[in-house]
């Protein structure tokens, strides 16, 4: 007997698995297929990546039952400091006490562990991993994927959640606007002498932003942060090859020694930076979520949060439609999802791209103009509040799952 489910989600990463869990809470069953071995993804030292979970995204995790598993392992972001090369004129984003934090920092490994644990307990999720899709079929009456072992999974709607290089998106012919920044993000975990005081730092240099993100203290009380350091592609190999002492000295110099002596607590890794945004987010019985639809610069830490807004929106659209008897793959529902998400994802993507280019202009005069503008934002409360609401993900029309 065929196990036909409402969703066939291709990609079981942070966005794809959150979608499966959120859908299950609404009674929507899914197949989740991922090429990676879950054990490898949660192994110690798999990667040093961390994610800033916005207020709205934390509401989503709360509403689907992940918050209790995650809360003890997250570091709240009390404020965000934005500066042009550590020069005077910075912006300090600090919410009012009743607004809570600006977000919570988690290692991606912690997020994966919580999601995978929840998925194993959920009967409405059929998890196939590691597994490779060798054939995809979409038609008027349903969808199916064939795995390398010959197993055929059937559903009503196919969801591409495979990330930036989504073969499902490419096979469907959904076109991308794309450009390469010719920069690379270097990722590493840091231990440092002085406390970060739960402040996230975004330090802009002409070569690219230098972000210090607060993490929980280590098991022996070590103060810890996650570093995302953007360098030119031509310089990346040299920076990555620096001996650890020289690498740490470069880090200390770029933060003006404000955290004291720095050491590394993870391996260095890196990935190229680019912009991409699909012209359309849907096709026949197909929908794109997360980086498969929009890949942005990590400058504001909004990439994963954009994907989680996709999740909340898609689940709400499907639930509303199925409540009145519509098929999950109904073109009306997919059109509603695309209208709802298209403008938000494009606006955030364009804003991140514009900020990257603005702060990338070298020279004393451009720096002075930027710092003058930042000083203005610091003094104008409504403008600061607007930017904080954007960072917290609470602006615009939110799906119910992302509300408190």
TrEMBL record:
Cofactor requirement: FAD
FAD-binding domain mapped to chain residues: 7-339
Pathway: Cofactor biosynthesis; ubiquinone biosynthesis
Organism: Caenibius tardaugens NBRC 16725
Keywords: FAD, Flavoprotein, Monooxygenase, Oxidoreductase
GO molecular function: FAD binding; monooxygenase activity; oxidoreductase activity, acting on paired donors, with incorporation or reduction of molecular oxygen
UniProt lineage: Bacteria, Pseudomonadati, Pseudomonadota, Alphaproteobacteria, Sphingomonadales
Descriptive protein name: Putative 2-octaprenyl-6-methoxyphenol hydroxylase
Oxidoreductase recorded as keyword: yes
Family: Belongs to the UbiH/COQ6 family.
Record Pfam families: FAD_binding_3
GO biological process, alphabetically ordered: ubiquinone biosynthetic process
Domain of life the protein comes from: Bacteria
């Amino acid at each position: 007997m065929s196990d036909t489910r409402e969703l066939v989600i291709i990609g079981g990463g942070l966005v794809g698995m959150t979608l499966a869990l959120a859908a299950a809470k609404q009674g929507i069953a899914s197949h989740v297929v991922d090429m990676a071995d879950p054990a490898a993804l949660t192994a110690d030292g798999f990667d040093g990546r961390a994610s800033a979970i916005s207020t709205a995204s934390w509401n989503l995790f709360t509403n689907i039952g992940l918050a209790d598993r995650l809360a003890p392992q997250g570091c709240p972001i009390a404020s965000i400091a934005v500066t042009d090369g550590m020069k005077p004129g910075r912006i300090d984003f600090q919410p009012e006490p009743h607004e809570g934090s600006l977000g919570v920092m988690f290692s991606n490994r912690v997020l994966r562990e919580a999601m995978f644990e929840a998925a194993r307990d959920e009967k409405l999720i059929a998890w196939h991993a590691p597994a490779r899709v060798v054939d995809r079929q979409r038609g008027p009456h349903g969808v199916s994927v064939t795995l390398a072992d010959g197993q055929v999974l059937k559903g009503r709607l196919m969801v591409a959640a495979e990330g930036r290089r989504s073969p499902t998106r490419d096979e469907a012919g959904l076109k991308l606007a794309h450009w390469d920044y010719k920069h690379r993000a270097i990722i590493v975990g840091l231990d440092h002498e002085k406390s970060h005081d739960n402040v996230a730092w975004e330090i802009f240099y002409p070569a690219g932003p230098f972000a210090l993100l607060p993490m929980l203290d280590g098991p022996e009380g070590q103060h810890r942060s996650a570093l995302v350091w953007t360098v030119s592609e031509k310089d990346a190999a040299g920076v990555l090859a620096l001996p650890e002492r020289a690498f740490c000295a470069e880090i200390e110099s770029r933060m003006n020694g404000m955290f004291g002596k720095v050491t590394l607590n993870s391996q260095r890794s890196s990935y190229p930076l680019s912009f991409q945004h699909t012209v359309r987010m849907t096709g026949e019985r197909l929908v794109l979520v997360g980086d498969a639809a929009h890949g942005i610069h990590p400058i504001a830490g909004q990439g994963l949060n954009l994907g989680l807004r996709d999740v909340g929106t898609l689940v709400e659209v499907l639930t509303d439609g199925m409540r009145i008897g519509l098929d999950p793959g109904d073109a009306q529902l997919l059109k509603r999802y695309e209208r709802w998400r298209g403008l938000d994802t494009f606006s955030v993507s364009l804003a991140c791209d514009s900020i990257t280019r603005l702060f990338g202009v070298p020279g004393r005069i451009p720096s002075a103009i930027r710092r003058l503008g930042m000083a203005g934002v610091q003094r104008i409360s409504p403008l600061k509040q607007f930017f904080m609401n954007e960072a917290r993900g609470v602006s615009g029309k939110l799906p119910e799952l992302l509300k408190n």
